[in-house]
Amino acid sequence: MNEDILKAIDKALKEGPEGVLCTVVEEKGSTPRSMGAKMWVSADGSTIGTIGGGIVEHHVIDEALNLLKGKAQVLLYRESLNTKEAGDEGAICGGSLGVFLEVIGQNREVVIFGAGHVGKALARVATLTGYKVTVWDDRRDFANEDNIPWGHVVCSPLKEALDTEIRLHNKSYVVVVTRGHAVDKEVVQSLENKPFAYLGVIGSKHKIAEMKKNLLKVGVSQHFLDKIHAPIGLPIKAETPEELAISILAELIAVEKGADLDTLRLPFYNTIGSKETSSVQN
Fold first, then answer.
1. Confidence of residue 263 (pLDDT cuts 50, 70, 90)
2. How far is CA 87 from CA 58, 62, 109, 115, 183, in A?
3. 103 and 18 Cβ atoms separated by less than 8 Å
């Protein structure tokens, strides 16, 4: 494989943003490149390598950019190379080509602010379902690998953690379940202008309303606050930390898969809030 393509893949996995690896997987007849030829397409449309150039490569680049804009991760694209007619821009090689397109980039992850009972339970179930997990707390007794042996545990002041160890991106599913309302507010305020796929905050409707009101007073934008999912989780009448974790994870999966949350929520959607914030969250 082209060394520059390998470097681009490595960078996408470690730092982002995503790109698309395009590989010729089918060839029939005369084609400009053989099976195994690869091209990397970045989000800005730039490329590394080639699968043969011409109109087919142009079409593949368009499909790659569409993948980056949508929910799909892979695509098998096929095109005939015998479409040249008067006045068109087709190919005249006479064969056909199949190209496998795969989105590559930073892994989906759950970033949990709060290493208490709910945060710990969520770290466990999120790991079991294949998410990369990062857990932050500034309390060493909670934020340690003996207490939370799943994923990456960060124990440092919040600003330092966000500046050096927690790198959010467009596949970060952020869950705020800290030890109290004041810390929740501090975390949420620190996340404004950060990239993420989801931001949820635990607590009752009253608590969330108060937090948003106070954040507006200190200059946090309404646009950002409107992105918050709260109360957090799907309405399964969860009470224990483990049940709450499953409820929260179910909502994350629903958001990732593009499910209709309004359909999944029931009329009595107010069950996740006061109990966990007062008794099991810390």
1. confident
2. 18, 22, 49, 65, 66
3. yes
